[in-house]
Amino acid sequence: MLLCKTVSEMHDACRSLRNAEHTLGLVPTMGALHAGHLSLATAARAQNDAVAASIFVNPMQFGPHEDYEAYPRDFDEDYHKLESAGVHVLFAPSAEDMFPPGNTTYVDTGDLGSRLDGASRPGHFRGVATIVARLFHIVRPDRAYFGQKDAAQVAVLRRMVRDLNFPVQLVVCPIVREHDGLALSSRNRYLTSVERRRALILSQALAAVGQLVEQRETRAEVLQAAMRQTFAADREVRVDYAAVVDPETLLPVEDIFGGALIAVATWIGSTRLIDNLLITPRS
Questions:
Q1: Which position among 11, 34, 37, 179 bears the catalytic label?
Q2: Which domains does the chain have, with CATH numbers?
Q3: For the residues 2-20, what does the mean pLDDT come to?
Q4: Which of 79, 195, 217, 221 has CB atoms 3.0–4.6 Å from 191's, for a disulfide?
């Protein structure tokens, strides 16, 4: 696997792949890789001639009191995981290379970027969209791979691709879970053993919604009530949101006939975790 540490090196490596008439898939990450990330690399490897991945802990998407400095980093382990997954090129730039001195250009995500996670993390999606746009410009992939766990991010990036006419297909891969239902996240490693058990309440809240949907319940207020009831069982859980929204606009819906995103975010101790369930339109 070729390692590129500068923008110019990555430009050259990706240009060579494209000149060889290879289709190119991109897997953007912030490192601290787990099986969810590797499932993206596996999907990219199956659908493209070559795969590029990036590891960059983006300071722009962290708020002033968030965990940028403490965010888990283990580059050597991540390198070997990506190499084993069949990635051809790894891009691991510095912050100075991605954001040159005097940089003043950013991607404004508008009202969409202020919903769900954007409401409690102001500026987060501006940072995400800006770095992903730069990666798209540097790599020029045919396809880019993201996880369904970050559903609000997916909505923001889909809108960005549409609005800015990026010639890239976004491929959204299913959530990967532990055997007990906990969605994989790099931040899970922050959890104590007690908090790890308590974190199951996110998937339990979604399971309660899933049972109601199987029983043909369609009213958003009933589904939200089920989530609130689940979370109320643990008074130490701080709920950020438990929402039933349109998966493209992230705006609330009254029913799920046209499909919906059931999205939850909570703090377990000092760790903020997210999860979701995508409901397909009723036929």
A1: 37
A2: 2-173 (3.40.50.620), 186-278 (3.30.1300.10)
A3: 93
A4: 195
What's the pLDDT score for residue 18? 84
- Tell me if residue 37 is catalytic: yes
Compute φ and ψ for 237, nearest 5 degrees.
-80, 125
The beta strands (E) that lie in 148-270 are given as 169-173, 238-245, 260-268
Residue 283 pLDDT exceeds 70:
no
Helices then strands (H, E): number in the chain?
10, 9
Q: What is the mean pLDDT of the chain?
A: 96
Contact 27, 41 (CB under 8 A): yes
pLDDT one-digit tens code per residue, 89-136: 999 999 999 999 999 999 999 999 999 999 999 999 999 999 999 999
Closest CA to 34 of 190, 199, 189, 204: 189
Contacts of 68 (CB under 8 A, 6+ apart): 57, 59, 62
DSSP state of 93: -
SS3 72: coil
The predicted model gives 192-201 an average pLDDT of 97
Write out the two tokens for 84: 């084993």
Q: How many CA atoms lie within 13 A of 102 on its CB side?
A: 0
pLDDT tens digit string along 146-184? Answer: 999 999 999 999 999 999 999 999 999 999 999 999 999
CA atoms within 13 A on the CB side of 143: 20
Provide the residue type at 98 as one letter: M
Q: Answer yes or no: are the C-beta atoms of 118 and 153 closer than 8 Å.
A: no
